[in-house]
Amino acid sequence: MPLIALLYALAMITTSIGSVCGNVMLLLVVAFNTKLQTETWALTLNFCICDLILGLSAIPFGIHNSLSGVEGYDTKSILCQSNAFVYVLLQLASVHSLTWATIDKFTEICFALQYAQLFTKKRTWVILSFLWMYCLLNACFPFMGFGSYRYSENKFICMPRFQPSSKSYSIIIIVIGVIIPIMIMCSLYIYIVYIARNQALRGTFVCNDQHCYYVPANNYIRSSIVMISTAVCLLVCWMPYITVSFFETFTEYSIPPVADAVATWLVLLTSALNPWVNSMTQK
Question: What is its main location (predicted)?
């Protein structure tokens, strides 16, 4: 077995374990803590389930193929096509669910007085309904002749084929499906940091039924560090994959196998990181 394949398998095994354990833990915490079951907790539940299934489906598929040294996998087989479909469906659903969870958090902080009217349980389920319809449509595109799925020998999984002949498909999946949601999240995190900085400069008194107390600047600085770290984490995990995808789409050159594998692994790693990202941003 090549060393690269072995290292890739070990990284994927770690990712799968982290994804399953992290998301199960977060689901249990939310399930047994009624205070966390807000009107919009379905958004958190949604991306947790997506990442959990990803850690139990697409990632183990890659682990098996990398350990078995599978190279000439039948791209048109039902197993490969269905695995690629699940991969695209869950990744898009996870990214967009995390985006809406970030929008929810941003609204709660910046529009506290209007928050209860803006984000209701009914609107949350409407958002999730449209989100899943959008993700299903994108995942079904290759079955309708728009784009295609293939087995990647470098990544050991079945996934979308990004090539010059399908630029429109690549742009829809990468730009609309991934780049725009990530840019929205990073922009909102930056704005929240800006607000936290202003609050830290002037200080804030928070009151309850009995008394008022001063919130020290360190609290806002700590929140800012968490938000910045979250934005950096998103960019680090997704930018290599986005770069590789655009390189494959707009050039005829092949990507080095190691770079291709690492870029895909970083994207799959988000399924293990998302529970911790969500936990930190909720503090």
Answer: membrane
